[in-house]
Amino acid sequence: MAGTAPRTIGVVGTGVIGAGWTVRALARGHAVVAWDPAPGAEERLRAAVDQAWPSATRLGLFPGADRSRLAWAATADDLAGRVDWIQENVPEDEDVKRPLLQALAGVAGPEVVIASSSSGLLPTRLQEGCRYPERVLIGHPFNPVYLLPLVEVVAGRQTSIEAVDAAQTHYDDLVMHPLVVRTEIEGYLSDRLQEALWREILHLVNDGVATTRELDEAVYYGPGLRWAGMGTNLTFHLAGGKGGMRHMLGQFGPALKLPWTKLEAPDLTSDLIEAMAAGCEEQAEGRSMTELERLRDDYLVNVMRSLRPLGLGAGQLVAEREARIHEAGLPAQWSEGDPVAAPLTLYETTVEPDWVDYNGHMSEWAFLTAFGWASDKLFRYVGIDEDYRSAGHTFFTVETHLNYVREASLTDPLRFTTQVLGVDAKRLHFFHAMEHATTGDLLCTTEQMLLHVDTRVGSTTPLLPGPAAALTAIAKAHADLPVPPQVGQVMGLT
Ligand SMILES: NC(=O)c1ccc[n+]([C@@H]2O[C@H](COP(=O)([O-])OP(=O)(O)OC[C@H]3O[C@@H](n4cnc5c(N)ncnc54)[C@H](O)[C@@H]3O)[C@@H](O)[C@H]2O)c1
User: Per-residue pLDDT averaged across 180-207, rounded?
Assistant: First the structure.
């Protein structure tokens, strides 16, 4: 559901999860009204939004995304009367959630869906006593909510199909993956899986079999890497070799009778609590929670991006987000008669954490990556998008000249200008300049020659009429621009 109009999202309870929803909605370009009765909650929320904003930015901000679009409500009633959607994120306790949900439902119009972020409570219990109970459901996210796309949607006995549909549309609009849990069950799906692992960990620590660090190593050097792309079942299908899951079950089926798991949790004694907490503190190696959160966010973004070209798991949503941000952004795709800026300014960004080397400066290869995104913007502007590519048409770069002028440092704002130097039926010659967006200093330039190809037959082919007309119009508008001094240079010692 790309292109849903900006809305106002209500966030009730602004701890870890409420703050995460706030960032996700603001990054999508929506307004947020938040409320939490704890003293100092507003300041804490604003600080949490500031802390998470760079990570949300790396994943991509929609046009209109603005931290100042966060407002604070005086009371729950005040919030409920001002918003199009309510996301409740108060402590995991039915006695706290139920009266609050009833109060919110008493004020919010019948069209406003009220979603609880509960990790495992039954929606049938939560919607009891609410006005218009059919609009109450679970929307269970995963921390950090502004990065992880999964949200489990669980209906209670009174929840309407329309509310479930609205939830799917709403979460899809936030570029999430709404997973509808078809049977109302405690713990839903993902937390049941996590809980199995978690209980096993508690036993193994309690029995002195392993430390928290060893058990984390047992995940992140092995199965954890597989889970991000393929989950447990498809991974085990591969574990069966050519015979797949059938062979795998034949081989490991007897192990299911072995005492390989103890699903019943151990008693949470003070010794066990101490072993778990001390183990994790030792693993933190003196790093603060803020440092660890930054590190977690950076690797999550990197993992999700690495899945993008493979079309696996969350990588698909990274691509979807890019396409939607472009679609919602300006300038829109060029069409016949539109004026053309000379040069074009289609892309702005900031220097990202994985673009810098040990000096804190942007690495050589990262300049080309950034120029690649600028080219992507040009392609989309002329109508070369997912549909064009999936029909087998695209450009291949055949020659690139980079000129490094000044270094760029972590978080520096960057602006790219694009000049089309020439285009014919099958070739495109253009020039991008990268500037510091605040100082205007020139940082780097690239001149490139591209060939238009048909990937299905593996040869060059003429541009289709839409992009051809757009590029011709741009080349005409750019014809009077001075040719940049970096164009056509040859490298040599003389
Ligand atoms: N932390 C996670 O990883 C995670 C993941 C998914 C879902 N959840 C669920 O999200 C919900 C919130 O969890 P959290 O981790 O953000 O907790 P948290 O303790 O960080 O935040 C809870 C917030 O609710 C506020 N609050 C308490 N009573 C309130 C009331 N009556 N009205 C309004 N606000 C009130 C508190 O002041 C606090 O800011 C829980 O239902 C939890 O199960 C948590």
Answer: 94
Class of the domain covering 8-181: alpha beta
DSSP 8-state secondary structure symbol assigned to residue 75: S
Q: What is the largest CA-CA distance in the chain?
A: 85
Ligand 1 centroid distance, CA of 73 (Å): 17
The separation between CA 74 and the C-alpha centre of its own chain, rounded to angstroms, equals: 31
Summarize pLDDT for 24-77 with one digit per residue, the tens: 999 999 999 999 999 999 999 999 999 999 899 888 889 889 999 999 999 999
pLDDT above 50: residue 294? yes
Give the residue whose CA is nearest to atom 9 of ligand 1.
118
Read off the amino acid at residue 242.
Answer: K
For the cut 60, the answer to whether the pLDDT of residue 2 exceeds it is no
CA 16 to ligand 1 centroid distance, Å? 7
pLDDT of residue 238: 86
Task: Quote the pLDDT of residue 3.
Answer: 44
The burial class, CB within 10 Å (0-12 / 13-18 / 19+), for 493 is exposed
90 alpha carbon – ligand 1 mean position (Å): 4
Degrees, nearest 5: CA angle 341-344-349:
140
Ranges in the chain annotated CATH 3.40.50.720: 8-181
CATH 3.40.50.150 fits 331-478, yes or no: no
Locate 109 and state its tokens.
């119009």
Query: Does the 190-286 domain belong in CATH 3.40.50.2300?
Result: no
Residue 205, Cβ density class (10 Å: 0-12 exposed, 13-18 middle, ≥19 buried): buried
Ligand 1 atom nearest the C-alpha of 88 is 11
Size of the chain, expressed as the number of residues it contains: 494
